[in-house]
Design goal:
The chain is of the alpha/beta class. It has a domain of 68 residues. It contains 2 helices and 6 strands; from the N terminus they run αβαβββββ. The strands form 2 sheets. A 3-stranded parallel β-sheet has the order 1-2-3, with no helix packed on it. Strands 4-6-5 form a 3-stranded antiparallel β-sheet, with no helix packed on it. Strand 5 and strand 6 form a beta hairpin. The longest helix has 14 residues. The chain is elongated and about 45 Å long.
């Protein structure tokens, strides 16, 4: 299965967990990968995907209608992540220049 197929499956799983009343109208989704999410602007979306390393804590915004989701890549790792050095070099298959990341070999017997 290709990368887009896997991403589509994950997105559908996320939607499956969304309340049915949200699906009665078009769903609005925002993606924010920066360090400081613009919470007031993003809070009007149904789903907001943020970087897990941002300084954002959803529990501080209980009145937001948004369902806040942290983006986590299970297939790639970027050098700026705190856990980057924990990955054995043998797990790296190659580079993804579009995201400045390294592709992880998930077929490795040592992969969790």
């Amino acid at each position: 299965m290709g990368r887009r197929g896997k991403a589509s499956i994950w997105f559908l799983l996320v939607l499956w967990g969304v309340s049915p009343h949200l699906l009665a109208r078009p769903l609005t989704v925002a993606f924010y990968y920066g360090k400081h999410p613009a919470v007031r602007e993003l809070a009007d979306f149904d789903l907001v995907v943020v970087d897990p390393d941002s300084d954002f804590t959803p529990v501080h915004y209980p009145r937001s209608r948004a369902h806040w989701i942290a983006y986590v890549s299970v297939g790639e790792v970027t050098p700026n992540r705190g856990y980057y050095d924990l990955f054995p070099k043998s797990w790296i298959l190659g580079d993804d220049p579009d995201w400045n990341s390294e592709i992880i070999d998930q077929t490795s017997p040592a992969w969790p």
